[in-house]
Amino acid sequence: MANSNTDIWDRTTWDAIRRARGVTYADISEATGVTYKAVTKWFYGERTPSLRSQILMAKCLNIPLTQALKNITDPDIRSAIRSVIL
Fold first, then answer.
1. How far apart are CA 14 and CA 67, in angstroms?
2. Which residue, 37, 25, 31, is CA-closest to 84?
3. pLDDT per residue over 20-57, tens digit each?
4. What single string gives the DSSP state of each residue in 47-58?
5. Model pTM?
């Protein structure tokens, strides 16, 4: 997996969506299975969530995954994504 862009995270946009939809950090923590503190670090730009967490968070925020994942073409990564979202 040489230099594949597997990051769908867009902190600014996703935070705006989170706020508009009334989704709390606690909601995201529960949906992703990570701590509240980890979620706050994502949104404050201190850390980047794993791809798995990004996908679960997109689902929690009701962000269409087809749009979020359109730039990921690596078949192994796409297979891993399918295993998370199905």
1. 13
2. 31
3. 999 999 999 999 999 999 999 999 999 999 988 988 99
4. ----HHHHHHHH
5. 0.76
